[in-house]
Amino acid sequence: MRTMEKSRQTAVLEAVLFTMGEAVKIDKLAKLIEADEKETVALLEEMKKGLDKDSRGITLNQVGDAYQLCTKPEMYDYLIDLTKSDHKFVLSDSALEALSIIAYKQPVTRLDVEKIRGVNSDHAINRLLEFDLIKELGRMDAPGKPILFGTTDQFLRSFGVKSLEDLPEMSQVQIEEFKEQAEQEVQLKLDI
Q1: Under a CB-based contact definition with an 8 Å cutoff, are residues 60 and 72 in contact?
Q2: How far apart are the C-alpha atoms of 27 and 48, rounded to whole Å?
């Protein structure tokens, strides 16, 4: 059996530790690079020395019998600055209504959303586009060629679902309640 060269072993260790993002046990690392644990620790310590230079933003930490690549503490302020947002991600009730309709009925046109909501939805749809929660999927083959909308991967990430099939289903009781509310709203409009 041919063993890996030292430079290749170091590259494998770096790639695995970077990709995993969590501590990896020394025995697993040793097996990956076809070395014993003592040789693996020596390579990791050499890697740590290189990373601990002032010009580097990460370091290698030992966590029990495992190793993990981590951000140097003096870099935390930069990470905090990066994650601060001047733009608040707040959706109004109307935007949430429009988003729900688009998520469950996609592909859907603006007019379809407005028919269901009963009000103009231009602003809500524009906000959803701005937040990258919906996108244009194309155009409907109908007069005026209306734009078809659907959700994005950002929508899935934001709401913690893996796919559209994972969206919660409404119970029959909820559907009946919504129908009742809609009928009451229609009746109020007729009485006015």
Answers
A1: no
A2: 18
pTM: 0.49
Amino acid identity at 13: L
How does 163-188 read in b/e, with b if 16+ C-beta sit within 10 Å?
eeeeeeeeeeeeeeeeeeeeeeeeee
Q: Are 155 and 99 in contact (CB under 8 A)?
A: yes
Separation CA 25–CA 180 (nearest Å): 59
Domain extents in the chain: 6-79, 94-191
Give how far Cα 128 sits from Cα of 104, 134, 163, 188, Å.
15, 6, 18, 30
Interval 17-70: pLDDT, tens:
999 988 899 999 999 999 999 999 999 999 999 998 888 999 999 888 899 998
Domain 94-191 fold: Arc Repressor Mutant, subunit A (1.10.10)
CATH architecture of the domain with range 6-79 = Orthogonal Bundle (1.10)
Separation CA 155–CA 103 (nearest Å) = 9
Alpha-helical runs (H) found in the chain: 6-20, 26-32, 37-51, 76-83, 93-105, 110-117, 122-130, 153-158, 172-191
Give Dmax (Cα) for the chain.
87
